[in-house]
Design a protein that fits this description.
Strand content: 5-15%
Structural class: mainly alpha
Oligomer: single chain
Strand order of the largest sheet: 1-2
Helix content: 55-70%
Radius of gyration: 31 Å
Distance between the termini: 107 Å
Low-confidence stretches: 1-5
Length: 172
Amino acid sequence: MDLLAIGGTGPAGAIALSAADTAAGLQINLFWIIVAAANFVVFFLIVQRIAFGGLVKTLNDRHSRIEAGLQDADPLVRAAAVEAVGQWGEPDEAVVAALLPLLEDANDQVKVEVTKVLPKLAGATPAVIDGCSDLLVDVFGEAGRHTRSAVGLAELPFGIAVEIELTARLYE
């Protein structure tokens, strides 16, 4: 009697079948394979339409609302929208471009949020440093032109991802 072991490695996990039992028990019926495949396809399409279709719509709606929030007149809404962009992880270039003008926002809270978020998005540390340089020139005129150094780190206190150091000489 020829035996075929199926299952585990020990006596408790092994099932011994004769060659005749194996051949009889493993008859392949093409009809049932087609039925199973059709069931899988129908299930997949239903799940995709119901679950993923709604999820994609929700994400697109969220994306549109956040982009609108970046342009809102209320500074608290702009700051919240900037914070939400920071939670995306990898937004598109249009969103990053929309954040850059907010470095010069009239509201300090918006500026701080942009400064915290930009470096987290695709290595935007140079944009933050340039924004700081432009701000110093705007505030101090030609006297604000400077040599600069900045460090972009994964973690700084309070979630700020760029540290900018300024050394200044005061003239009377």
